[in-house]
Amino acid sequence: MAAVTAPRLYLTPTRHMRKFTTTALVTLLGLLVLLIFLMPLGYMSVTAVKNLQQIQDPNSQLLPASPVTFTYEGKELLLLNVPLPDGATRQLALYRKGREESDFIDPANPAAGPIHWVGRWRVLDPVYQFDPILSNFPNAWNAIKFGLLFRNTFIIAITGTIGTLLSSVAVAYGFSRFRIPGINAIFLVLMATIILPAEVTLIPTYIFFRLIGWGGTWWPLIIPHFFANAYNVFLLRQYFKGISRELDEAAMMDGASPLQILVSVIIPQSWPALTAVSMFHFFWAWNDFFRPLVYLQGKEELYPISVGLTQFSNIYQMQPHLAMAAAAMAIALPVAIFFLAQRVFMQGIVITGLEK
Amino acid sequence: MAAITQPASPADAFPVRRALSPLLRREINWGLLFLSPWIVGFLVFTIIPMAVSLVMSFTTYNPIHPSETRFIGLANYARLFGDPQLLRAVGVTLRFALISVPLSIILPLGLALLVNSERLFARNIFRTLFYMPYMIPAVAGVMVWGGILNSESGWLNTIIRWVLGVPGPRWFQDEGWVLPALTIMGFWGVGNTMLTMLAGLQNVPTELYEAARVDGAGPLRSFFNITVPMISPVIFYNLTLSLIGAFQSFTAAYIIGNGRGDPNGATLFYNIYLYKTAFAFLDMGYGSTLAWAMFLAVLLLTIFLFQTQNRWVYYAGGND
After folding, report:
1. Which of A87, A153, A314, B180 gets the highest tally of CB atoms within 10 A of its CB?
2. With contact defined as beta carbons under 8 Å apart, do B159 and A320 qualify?
């Protein structure tokens, strides 16, 4: 190819052009899809900073905006875009409303007195100004007792995360480093629990927790996580198996016990996997709806965000601005954590999803 | 991702010795000690509850009057077949699975192809943003989508009116539209599937595409004859999870249907019916029967899927 100079000179720019065009087209397509995909977040953001009037405004504005008024002789006058006979459009304040003709005041020169205008003022467009209602956030926060919901969710999520980390690390270590007869069969049983529908154990577990007096407490939402679960064990086991055994063997020669090896050799090399597991659990607990619904029935002061938010959305169906402000606050923390740690997180998903 | 692909563990290569040396004995004990949290949890939270739930499914257990519990043999199971509410719930669940499962494979696959394209500028940003809604708590997601799909003020119907010139459907009030509405809401959860599909796409050897191009195959042919077979294990994995997930739908339908299956039973999913039976009417005997019926259905479905695997799933390491 290099020998033929002329065609190359001719080809290269076109190929570049074509490459550039396809890149532009594909990226444009991607942006379009992304725009549709994230549209609900846009809706949430703009609705969360509107008030009810702005939402129900017949000339509904996309962004939170309110009609502008001008105070004249102690009265609030509506500012309208008025087309004048000379062809210019000016922003004038409606002073005297008439059916076919009205009087306006020029805000720039109110001393000049009313300006007479012939035409129907109702067809004129009001002047809007950007007017976000940030007070929706504190209002929603107080109405839903968000502080309490946050606190509850945090306690449930963090204790559960500690539990699942401790237990899943131990179990995954057991599965990855010890020659136990039948270990592969045991591992298959563990993996089979993934497809076991939770319903089939739900009712007896519920009765059991009530019998031991844990109905209406957080314990049923926390304690089971201290007994490991298949997803986390699988992820950690895959990771531990990838860690070279040379270091553990060296430590063993030095007389370290398996527990010491786990703590001083395996765990220090597994931070990415441990972070992924912690985040998975944290998000899962943040999101869990069914269990708190069942176990905390009627105990409003113990509700986590998921259940508290549902109640709120039932009560505030008629007040979408408050509902969206509440949703935005519930979304903010998980999304922020996700963006901060997305690399570790997305790797974890790929391990659990692919290496099955 | 590459950092975490594992070589086969050396542990598998150890020969199992007949007589257990004290050293191995000690190793087994330590290993069992580490496994013990899961073994205990498996017994307490899986095996025993499953057994109890099976026994309960033959009784009339109601936690308000536990002393009146009677053993009624298969009567609860017979009741399954004459229960009009259950028939309705099964119908809703199957219809939802039929609408949402194919889309829950096709859409993430499409997105994965898009964010895998070398022609996409800033691919990593796209990947992160497409994944992000998966992190949004389901309840908040449902609230937001509830606004978008609102038949009067929602943006979706505004767009439909604007582009097609017809009024959009009444998503949550119309029995025929509420399942599609729930499917649309589910689109926010495609990020996870997209990522696994993407990892699958990245594992397809590029030589295959080059060979196909030399043989004159177009992009469409290489997609169906190379990409799809090569990523079929990932598709299979996601199909299984997505089917099981569709059978177990609860949260979105519970919120949209006000916990009652509104409008008019159109969102009375199997799990909502189970929840109502066991925790609202406290008919826990029949509730357990419903749970076991669900378990058996999911089990049979999974076995069936694994059976079909040999026909269409291609494992590069050989099917076993």
Report:
1. A153
2. no
